[in-house]
């Protein structure tokens, strides 16, 4: 684990409020918190994310890495999260030449609440070499069953997406956020911080598999992507190009494989 100045300041994820039910009676309920977090790189503002506030340090690192603004964890000197001013500042000795030009090339995405990616986001995709995975149908079923123990904020308050990094049917890390891209960036930051290789991992998300989601998982080096939701045409095309096994509509004992069916051992086929 790199040694640098860190804060690790999580924010409250839910808040108790009173709602009136259909019979006119008050009910105490939990709602998901939502707060802005402005990311700075060497004190230059990059973007403001609307987030739940879980693991903000890792969200900042993962976002900046996925966007191509940083690439060397050993050159990160500090990550400072301050909820009094809703900011996360990443200080690095890595060169940030050309940052202004990268920030000027912005694309509005299909992310929750309309996200943005910058000109450097697509860089290096042709250089990504993902391993050919080997996954059992029974492993997918086991994974989906184990995921039922997570989604704590969703169960209490709804209004959030969840993402998990898994090895076989074991969930190594799970995070929820207002937008699915915040959740995937947080897990990307966690792997980046721990210098973990994604070769033998599975990525799970409750959100739809858009081009941006597929690209982020590929940048994490993870060859298997499983979603409870559907996929888009561009998401499928990119998965085919980069060799990602794409499993969609996965819930209970049902799933659809849109790419990489030959990497799955259908060992629990039912009549």
Quick structural summary:
This protein is α/β, with parallel strands linked by helices.
Summarize the helices and strands and which ones pair or pack.
Blueprint: E1 14-20, E2 26-32, E3 35-41, E4 44-51, H1 56-66, E5 76-82, E6 87-92, H2 99-104, E7 106-108, E8 116-118, E9 135-136, H3 137-147, H4 152-157, E10 161-167, E11 170-177, H5 180-193, E12 202-205, H6 211-219, E13 224-227, H7 233-242, E14 245-251, E15 254-259, E16 264-265
Parallel strand pairs: 3-6, 9-16, 12-13, 13-14
Antiparallel strand pairs: 1-2, 3-4, 5-6, 7-8, 10-11, 10-12, 14-15
InterPro entries: Cytidine_deaminase-like, FdhD
Active site: 112
Function: Required for formate dehydrogenase (FDH) activity. Acts as a sulfur carrier protein that transfers sulfur from IscS to the molybdenum cofactor prior to its insertion into FDH.
Describe the structure.
With 271 residues, the protein is α/β, with parallel strands linked by helices. It has two domains: 14-123, Ubiquitin-like (UB roll) (Roll), CATH 3.10.20.10; 135-265, Cytidine Deaminase, domain 2 (3-Layer(aba) Sandwich). Helix content is 25%, strand content 32%. It has helices at 56-66, 99-104, 137-147, 152-157, 180-193, 211-219, 233-242; strands at 14-20, 26-32, 35-41, 44-51, 76-82, 87-92, 106-108, 116-118, 135-136, 161-167, 170-177, 202-205, 224-227, 245-251, 254-259, 264-265. The strands form five sheets. It has a six-stranded mixed β-sheet with strand order 11-10-12-13-14-15, sandwiched between helices. The protein has a four-stranded mixed β-sheet with strand order 4-3-6-5, with helices on one face. Strand 14 (245-251) and strand 15 form a beta hairpin. The protein is globular and about 60 Å long. The termini are far apart. The model has no long low-confidence stretch (mean pLDDT 89).
């Amino acid at each position: 684990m790199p040694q640098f100045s860190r804060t690790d300041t999580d924010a409250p994820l839910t808040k108790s409020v009173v709602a009136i039910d259909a019979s006119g009676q008050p009910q105490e309920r939990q709602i998901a918190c939502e707060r802005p977090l402005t990311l700075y790189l060497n004190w230059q503002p990059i973007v403001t994310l609307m987030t739940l506030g879980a693991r903000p340090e890792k969200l900042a690192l993962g976002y900046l890495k996925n966007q191509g603004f940083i690439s060397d964890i050993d050159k990160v000197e500090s990550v400072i999260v301050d909820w009094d001013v809703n900011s996360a500042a990443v200080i690095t000795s890595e060169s940030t030449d050309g940052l202004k030009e990268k920030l000027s090339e912005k694309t509005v995405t299909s992310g929750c609440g309309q996200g943005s990616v910058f000109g450097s986001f697509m860089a290096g995709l042709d250089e990504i070499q993902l391993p050919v995975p080997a996954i059992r149908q029974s492993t997918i079923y086991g994974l989906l069953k184990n995921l039922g123990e997570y989604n704590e904020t969703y169960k209490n308050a709804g209004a959030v997406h969840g993402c998990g990094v898994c090895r076989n049917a074991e969930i190594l890390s799970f995070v929820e956020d207002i937008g699915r891209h915040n959740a995937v960036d947080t897990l990307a930051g966690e792997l980046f911080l721990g210098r973990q290789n994604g070769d033998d991992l599975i990525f799970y998300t409750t959100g739809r598999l858009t081009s941006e989601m597929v690209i982020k998982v590929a940048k994490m080096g993870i060859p298997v992507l499983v979603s409870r939701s559907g996929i888009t045409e561009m998401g499928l095309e990119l998965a085919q190009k980069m060799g990602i096994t794409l499993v969609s509509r996965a819930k209970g004992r049902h799933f659809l494989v849109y790419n990489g069916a030959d990497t799955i051992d259908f060992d629990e086929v039912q009549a």
